[in-house]
Amino acid sequence: MDRSWVADLAGREGDQVRLCGWVHAVDRSDDGVAATLRDRSGSALLRPPSSPCRHALGPRLASLAPGSAVEALGTVADAGPGTQPQLVLDELHVLGPAMAEVPLRPGASLEQRLDWRFLDLRSPENQLVFRVQTTLERAMRARWASEGFVEIHSPKLKPTPNQSGSELFSLEYFGGRAYLAQSPQFYKQMAMAAGFERVFEIGPVFRANPLPTPWHDTEFTSVDVELSWIGSHEEVMAWEERWLREVVVEVAEDHGVELRRWFGMEVTVPEVPFPRVDIATARGIVEASGYSLAHCPGDLDREGERRLAAHVAAEHGHDLVFVTGYPEEVRPFYHMRCQPGSVATRSFDLLWKGLEVTTGAQREHRYEVLMDQARARGLSLHPLRYYLDFFRFGCPPHGGFGLGLTRVLMVLLGRSTVRDVTFLPRTAQRLHP
Amino acid sequence: MDRSWVADLAGREGDQVRLCGWVHAVDRSDDGVAATLRDRSGSALLRPPSSPCRHALGPRLASLAPGSAVEALGTVADAGPGTQPQLVLDELHVLGPAMAEVPLRPGASLEQRLDWRFLDLRSPENQLVFRVQTTLERAMRARWASEGFVEIHSPKLKPTPNQSGSELFSLEYFGGRAYLAQSPQFYKQMAMAAGFERVFEIGPVFRANPLPTPWHDTEFTSVDVELSWIGSHEEVMAWEERWLREVVVEVAEDHGVELRRWFGMEVTVPEVPFPRVDIATARGIVEASGYSLAHCPGDLDREGERRLAAHVAAEHGHDLVFVTGYPEEVRPFYHMRCQPGSVATRSFDLLWKGLEVTTGAQREHRYEVLMDQARARGLSLHPLRYYLDFFRFGCPPHGGFGLGLTRVLMVLLGRSTVRDVTFLPRTAQRLHP
Q1: A71: contact with B, CB 8 A cutoff
Q2: Which one of A93, A198, B202, B398 has the fewest beta carbons within 10 angstroms of its own beta carbon?
Q3: Which residues of A touch B258 (CB under 8 A)?
Q4: Residues 150-169 of B with CB under 8 A from A
Q5: Closest by Cβ to B157, choosing from A148, A389, A426
Q6: Complex ipTM more than 0.90, yes or no
Q7: Quick one: which of A220, A203, A247, A225 has its CA closest to A360?
Q8: Does any CB of chain A come closer than 8 Å to the CB of residue B68?
Q9: Reported pTM
Q10: Segment B393-416 mean pLDDT
Q11: Which residues contact A22 (CB under 8 A, 6 or more apart)?
């Protein structure tokens, strides 16, 4: 018999069905025994039959250990309006018995929950988090598909370290050394030089960051986009904001009701265009609020980002803001300058409720200019030679951005750390399970 | 002015348009100069205007270096039926000049091509390979989306080595050791214990294989599926074959014309069900063809797989075959036995034109049985304790498979090595670019 879902039982009174799910609770009252079965769609009450020839089912129901994975065959009973569906059992098969009590209590700490992540993930709230993540990515891909983007899988094993050599994992590779990719930046620019025109990638990146914050893992999922034939970084920002808006619309449509029920939250679909503020103005706003940014010239720190976000929310009623035009000293050497010789770059960050979720830019694609910028930074050109080659054989103007998937999920769902919305987070202190 | 595509110029004679693309060739004949511009959609001829006030455009066209990335504005000319579109130029901007001759010649070896992969990927054939890959994955995801699968991103940094410890990359991790994931097997089973019911992942996996074959890279993209509440591995196979058929249908619909043009090939949509043969019968077929399998008891080697495929093609006219029921000695300890105490497992491989593209199985989810199987294999239970815990708190029956993305692409496109269809392949000898 095909499996039925709990949520589909309404109006099927008298039908024979097969349910599969987990025993949520067993109720042994004076009125008799009943067990709650939960599947992905909802929960139903299992009751023993009144028929004496199946009298063994009552005691078996009563002895079920919560958590057990069971298959239940029976007849849908008329449970009355507004109550949960009921099934009068014909057969009950314990396919995966729970043999021990679940070692997680309500109110367990995040670290305890992560130690027992597979049990922690059983809650409806956590199941919802990962269904929302699935929808996020599906919606992102819908736009890429409709616009002819090419998907790439860039290698995570790299032959050379990044420029700074910081936060880098390295390993022995057949007698030499390999490095784990910190971003697909290099390779998505390679795809532009290869004429792929528009590419995306969703994949893991690695940062050997020894100090965990609520927003930094040592491994996380990066969403990367790169576009050729752009006129400036403004086109990248315009592309990203329309795309993000569509993604949030999809989440609201697919999960709005559940998010209200389980998280008590409303999904806010952001208006486009998002507000834009250049970094000098942003710093001025933060300083005017009474917070000094003297320790991070040309940039914002976390508190600065929060204060800017509060200002934008108050002034524009918007949760998102593009910060633009960072000075070259706080950006990689390959970011294009706003004008020849200017200090400001064609770069942007996107803050969402005060958290940086995206870094993006137009890249410098003119070989001589790029060489000058590398030299001015005091970089050795030899380790960069393969990268520099991209621009010697005809490369269109291009730019793009990277976006942290779990940061977006965290902000969207109002959680306080990315580790709450990461399947199995990794930090300096946590490599398990 | 918005960008136009070459393929959309037909019927637009007299229109002002903007094209972006690469200079493919420059023709300097007695009739005058013309350059071929190629974009993703096709190629067009750029001609200088006859107007004397724009006389500089002719010499500029003539001096273009092939490969240069250019923007061309002009008027669509009537080129006559069956010829390529023509543009009479108003403006020509060299946005990314080619400064050097492309160091790749027709007939370059695969290794030379991979050294200059970004130039190699410019060919229409290679561009097509990655557009087909994009379609493959999109079609895979369409089915997952319609059936409510949850996407997971399992960690690639793991705390423990695999059982055999073979072909394993390891790295220092904040004073301890981490291992690069060889498959998401452990974590997709964890998702089943967490009640995710149906999950998928597309992501990188790592194998420190020192001996490259045409079908083995040290890093490749694995497509993984896991299903709960199955009755047997037969359900997994039935799911996979319908899914693969739909994927091939999508490739044929989206790229059939181009694949005929560039590769001279027809996409064959496989009939379902695929033929099935148990391993004992498969070995008998191979031995009967005059090839001894004495050196690989209970299994097939590459030549065996080829001979079996030839037999299946001759007998059933089919490119695909499921080989089932491998003995436990050649499968991991957690594969479920066909019957209690039997040697045969509920496992399968899928061969496509004689190449293994999938390994799958129903997993043993009964704690006591699993412990017995681990002990019988002589495994130490302590390193397995986190895995074994999955089955102590209620775990449904489940099974799934892993599929090598580039192997499928290679077979589908009739290429001879996965490295031909991998964006940037990695082997013991190749970590660059």
Answers
A1: yes
A2: A93
A3: none
A4: 150-159, 169
A5: A426
A6: yes
A7: A225
A8: yes
A9: 0.96
A10: 97
A11: A37, A38, A39, A67, A68, A69, A70, A122, B195, B394
